[in-house]
Design goal:
The protein is α+β, with helices and mostly antiparallel strands. It is built from 3 helices and 6 strands; from the N terminus they run H-E-H-E-H-E-E-E-E. Strands 1-2-4-3-5-6 form a 6-stranded mixed sheet, covered by helices on one side. It starts with 20 loop residues before the first helix and ends in a 7-residue tail after the last strand. It has one domain: Muramoyl-pentapeptide Carboxypeptidase, domain 2 (2-Layer Sandwich). The chain is globular, with a radius of gyration of 15 Å.
Amino acid sequence: MIEMQHFTPDEFREWGRDMSPHLLALLDEFRDRLGHPVAISPHPKALGRHHGPQGTSQHNVDRWGEVRAVDVMPKIGRRFRRLAFDIAKETGFTGIGVYPDWEPRWGMHLDVRDDREPGDPAVWSGIKVWDRDEERMVQVYRALEQGFA
């Protein structure tokens, strides 16, 4: 694992040795540019996952041989989501998702997928909507702008 200014190895839990060095370098730079603390999401799937060689998630260590995605929760208010997105894009992440409804605070998915170029990332938002059939809130993926609404 690379040496980082803003994160400790323990924050990456059991996935520390599997984390992409490129991802970690960008994450540290993102935190530096943002100027505010950034927490790794406490969700068990915020870092690596085992989804077999066919699973396409950037979190999937089985497919990529390393964890190429991290879910984070910047410790700034919701009104700064656009700023955090812009900084993530400028930093060079090639996949950026904005999740305004995560708990305990809004969050972002940041990745280093190799089918996109820095400055032209895959982008989306994950928002919660009421599913009448299941009678509960479910997360759906929508256009990026809905993550800023």
